[in-house]
Structure formats: structure tokens, C-alpha cells
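Entry 14. Structure prediction run on the chain below.
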Amino acid sequence: MNVPNFIIAGAPKCGSTTLFRYLNPHNDVFFPKIKEPGFMIKEYYQGLSKDSPNYQRQLEYLVLNEQKYSRLYDRKDCKILGDSSISYLFQYENAIKNILKYCNRETKILFVLREPISRLKSQYQYIIELGFENLELRNALELEDYRLSQNWSSIFAYKRQGLYADGIKAFMEAFENIHIMFFEDLIADPFSQMNKVYQFLGIPSSEFVEDLTFNKSGIPRNRGLHHFLMTKNPVRSAFAKAMRSFMSEDRLLLIRDRLREMNQRKNSVIEISDDLRQSLKDFYKEDHKELERLLGRKLPWTA
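Output returned:
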């Protein structure tokens, strides 16, 4: 079975798409067109409730069959074969079990982490953008545990996906090659951070198209245009197929991002009240302490 030897494992809205876009053009790196196949937590996805609002959309993108997953990596000419499935950190027990089963302890695992309240806001706004959330943030947070207990998708784990320490500790104990980076550092100094990634992967440094971030969240002005840009459909697929004769896949994705960004409302950032922010800070406080202990350094957002 063909399998990846490099996994970007978490967490959502922490810059994994930006990292993926920086790495993808490298001659020694291969990612399949399905950026987040999710195979290493297939048991989790197979147990999701059909009542989860994004259930059908996830089925379009996930690859949960061994043979289909193996075909994604039918490449012998690249040193690094990558899987960028960000829910692996949140579902770390399933992920670790399956990565050890299908890959090995030497598999390179990379995490991009972000200040959790900013990450939460971005994830919530992204799910609104996709049309799967209609509750105010406070109400959505109050219902989070109930939704998860009903086997809704982890995209509704706005608060809990900002808890990093337990998952990071488990991965560090299970694998020999772990690299942890931070969204804040990647945005502030992408060239320095990418050189560390290249060194971790054992590949030469390479030029990449710098951008502050890819995959920015925002509320769309025109939902029809947003649906066309972000959802599989015959017209979009035919257009992309024709354009691949003239430009690379990365350039096509960059154009899609720009169109999506142009279609977003200005000043649509979600605001959090002072009392809710303090409540969230208290929720994450112990996790931050444990993460700092594990990493032996201050976190960028607490330094």
C-alpha cells in the first residue's frame, strides 16, 4: 500500500493551507489534489451523524477506502509524500493508531498552532461562510458539547479544537520526527519558518509565492458565487480542466482564493465580548501551561 511519509496534522484555521501552498510547488514534495483525505481517522468519519449539516459535503472530499487512499500516493519520484488533514490533532487517538498501522514511527508529523481564541473566531466565521452555521457565536459554543455528543463533525468543535496539549503530547510519545510551528511566526517571517520546514523534511530550500495567508475566512456577498468557487460542480471542473493547459494547479488555487476574497464582505470580522473572551482565556489557561511545559518555551501569544 502506498502511504505518505509526511503529515500536516493540525489544527483548523492555523495556517495549514498557507503551509500547504508554500510546499506544494517544491520538486521534492507531492500532495494529492485532495488536500485533506482524512483517511487516518476514517473510523471517526464513518461514525458521523447524517444530521451533521456538512455531512454530504464531507463525503465529497474524504478518502476513507484503503485502495483509493493508496492510489493517491502512486508516486515514486518524490521524496516527500504529504497528507494535510488537520483534524488528525483533534482526533489524535484514532490518527496515531492508524498512522502507526499504515505508516511507521519515522513518519514526519508537522503541527501548525495558533492563538486559540483567534483560531476559534476564524473557524466559526468559516463555517458561517460555508452556510453550515446559523447561530450566534455564544449560542454555538453553548451547544458545542451537545453537538459533538450527537456525532456532528469536528468543524463545530469551535472551542475544543483549540486544546492542543493532550494531542501534541500523545504524538510526541508515538513518533520520532515532530515539528511544531506557530501561525503567528509563519505570518511574521515566512521565509525563516519555511527554511526550518525544509530542514525538517530534509529537502533543499525553495522559492515560494509569499502571501500573508491563504484560505481567509469571511462572509460572502454573493452566496451563489461562493458556492460555485468552493463546491464541486461540473461547470467549475470543466473550467479548471481547460485552464490547466495554461497554468499550474497552484496558480488556479490562487485565483480562486482571490475571487473568493473579493466576494467577501468588508469588516465582517466576528467580535467577541469581554466576558466571553475572559471565559475562553480561563478555559485555555491550563492547556497553555501544559503546552509550554511540553515544548520548553513560551507560546507566541503568551510571551
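The first strand starts at residue 6 and ends at 10.
Filed with the rest of this week's runs.
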